[in-house]
Design brief:
2 copies of one chain form a homodimer.
Chain A lengths: L6 H12 L18 H15 L6 H7 L14 H13 L12 H18 L3 H4 L8 H15 L5 H32 L3 H15 L3 H4 L1 H6 L10 H29 L3
Helix pairs in contact in A: 2-3, 2-4, 4-7, 5-7, 5-8, 7-8, 8-12
Chain A binds a DNA duplex through loops.
Chain lengths: 262, 262
DNA sequence: GTACATTACTTTATGGTGTAAGGAGTCGGC
DNA sequence: GCCGACTCCTTACACCATAAAGTAATGTAC
């Protein structure tokens, strides 16, 4: 059963998100804190980066810091809040300055690329799926960056909002495929090519009428030649670039329509 | 630690995905099976639909069928495979016929709409995130439907593929926001408006310089008036429609470019 | 009719999870 | 010196997936 956060918990997590990262050393009785929220979050991010979200537990984070799981609860209300913090802090890493001098399109592309990079460096971001927007500084930072870059199209902000969310979705969706392919390759030890090959053989054997049942899919075939380069990962990148171009073409159309019939 | 599937397991799950749904009654010694893979999958889907993925456990599925958790392992290798089956069976529900008589654009829109509906009826689909493509009949069915509808644009299939994945990503991304808003509202008991209001107040109090730090976001404000209609859900739908239009505009550009300079 | 193999399902057990409760030790202020 | 506040630990509980072994039901072979 899911426990839901009351009002007090909401305040607590917002304070953690927005509060000062470097806490002034406490004065008063009691032992000095040996940990800090930031240290805990950093350790958790390290684990998620290196071993995936499945290996992230309060125990594993505690262990990495030389403590038990329960020690963390002095600093962080629970795992949910810890993950929210990880998520928001990581989003905050997104670079924020994009030159618009070579046009909005180039700026939008390099921003999308930075977002792609960020997600590929921290693939667990895609598994977080905050039950509601986290509303932390990192999330705001990303929104602000996206909005301000896309605002240079000259479109009204009320429309830019939708461009932003579409772009964000395209990036997230395509990078997810890339990230999952990497993770699966690491977990199974199988190279992607091997996995794909084994799976195709199995499919052909178990479903002999595959091409008859799904003619269009069959007609498509693999988009890139099999090489030593990871297949699915390459495909995901192509999907990212192509999808982005399509979207930006749509934006261009919108610009022309808005300013065209002058 | 994640256990990875060997070759034998792969065959077993492919057989479950592609095998006949109605199994002929076994002849031979031993008690008659009281359950079936399909019954188990259906029960699991019911639970996920009604109570969310968090409530889905081998126990809960077994209980719903009047069995213990372990009874399921006679039919299904493990939870992973069960979830794969749920995912693929549900994707198979997508309607497949879309009239192209009123143009590819209308067909694409109604297909995207059906996809949106499907995900909103089964929001847990978005949390499944198969570590690799499931390669089941449902997944193929969706791909086939998307590809064949978008192929009516006349674009080469190699480009249609990217349109398909971009469209899919836009739908998934926007519907995720809608689904999560519903779920959160149900779990917390708070109406969305209430939650949003409480959160804004908290933000304003804890981060007084919010509008200075994120001017563009601040300038945006809420996109729709607060009403009794769920705010985030309405917003998600708008994002879906607007994103889709942008993408389809991009497709139109591609069509013109391809056939234009005749 | 009886023995046996086969199978559905249960019980029990193992090692994982998040976290509530309470105890141990450490420090500052009086 | 001592109190109170504070960090951190141990213990405990409820839940999870699932391995292993046991039980009961069923068909076939003799």
């Amino acid at each position: 059963m899911v426990v839901f956060a009351g009002q007090g918990d909401a305040r607590r997590s917002m304070e953690l998100l927005w509060g000062p990262r470097v806490v002034a050393p406490r004065t008063g009785p009691g032992p000095k804190p040996g940990l800090s929220v930031e240290a805990i979050v950093a350790a958790a991010i390290d684990i998620a980066d290196a071993e995936g979200m499945a290996s992230l537990s309060m125990r594993s984070v505690g262990e990495r810091l030389g403590r038990t799981a329960m020690a963390l609860y002095t600093y962080v209300p629970g795992k949910t809040e810890l993950v929210d913090l990880m998520y928001d802090r990581t989003l905050g890493e997104l670079p924020s300055s994009y030159s618009v001098t070579s046009g909005w399109r180039a700026a939008a592309f390099s921003l999308a690329d930075a977002l792609w990079d960020l997600h590929l460096r921290h693939p667990w971001l895609l598994q977080v799926s905050p039950a509601r927007p986290v509303l932390g500084p990192g999330e705001f930072h990303v929104q602000e960056t996206l909005l301000s870059v896309l605002a240079s199209t000259g479109l009204p902000l009320s429309r830019v909002r939708w461009v932003v969310s579409a772009l964000f979705n395209i990036v997230r969706g395509s990078v997810q495929a890339a990230a999952e392919s990497r993770q699966a390759a690491r977990e199974t030890g199988l190279s992607e090519e091997d996995w794909w090959y084994a799976r195709s053989a199995l499919l052909g054997e178990l479903v002999p009428d595959l091409t008859a049942r799904f003619p269009t899919v069959a007609r498509l075939g693999p988009s890139v030649e099999l090489s030593d380069e990871p297949y699915l990962e390459r495909e995901a990148r192509l999907s990212f670039e192509a999808g982005l171009e399509l979207l930006l073409d749509g934006v261009e159309t919108a610009i022309v329509k808005a300013s065209g019939p002058r």
